[in-house]
Amino acid sequence: MIQLENVSKIFDTGFNQVRALSEVNLNVQQGEFIAIKGPSGSGKSTMMNIIGLLDRPTKGKYILANNDVSKLNDNTRSHIRGSIFGFVFQSYNLIPRLAAVNQVEMPLIYRKEKNRRKKSILALSKMGLAQRINHSPVELSGGEQQRVSIARALVGEPKIILADEPTGALDTKTGEEIIGIFKELSNSGITVIIITHDNSVAKKTSRIIEMKDGMVQ
Predict the structure, then answer these.
(1) Which residues pair with 87 in a beta bridge?
(2) pTM of the model as a whole
(3) pLDDT tens for each residue of the chain, 217 residues long
(4) Residue 167 CB burial class (10 angstroms; 0-12, 13-18, ≥19)
(5) Three-state SS string across the chain, please?
């Protein structure tokens, strides 16, 4: 599903060049549940951004679903990103006064899909939030907010979920529940990639990719 071939990412600050990734090679199969683990500055978030088509490699090749996406134009990349990926973040990225069902509807509005409300309610129901669809973020616990963000990521029926420190703002018990949800999604055939510095989270995945100084260890 995902293949990185000798991928490097270099940021030019104007004063010097910072090598965030250095000739990374990676293969991820459909339905895998993996963790990309490493300390701050190891390159794991840069790798996520490249995998999720949020950034481009400076060098190397990125093959996604048997297609070379390394040099596609921005419009094509945006279309692929919206159809293949779902994103989950540590900070939830919810709009403060918007009800949960409207939060989940947002990506479907951009895609001009029909039956948005029905699909959004179904996605929230799968996350155990059928009775909370009209609640705004301030009326939800941290775990419930993260479930809303997962529902938002799932409503477009993605093939790949990218989760950046998804349990970082949660207590241990709630974090374990969220990891359990990701495991179930992987078992259903969705590829789940978690970016984390937390070894206890990484150990709950099926494979750990260790990052250090921009390289896979």
Answers:
(1) 162
(2) 0.91
(3) 899 999 999 988 778 888 899 999 999 999 999 999 998 889 999 999 999 999 999 999 999 999 899 888 999 998 899 889 999 988 889 999 999 999 999 989 888 888 899 999 999 999 999 999 999 999 999 999 999 999 999 998 999 999 999 988 888 999 999 999 999 999 999 999 999 988 999 999 999 999 999 999 8
(4) buried
(5) CEEEEEEEEEEECCCCEEEEEEEEEEEECCCCEEEEECCCCCCHHHHHHHHCCCCCCCEEEEEECCEECCCCCHHHHHHHHHHHEEEEECCCCCCCCCCHHHHHHHHHHHCCCCCHHHHHHHHHHHCCCCCCCCCCHHHCCHHHHHHHHHHHHHCCCCCEEEEECCCCCCCHHHHHHHHHHHHHHHHCCCEEEEEECCHHHHCCCCEEEEEECCEEC
Return the structure tokens found at 129: 């939030």
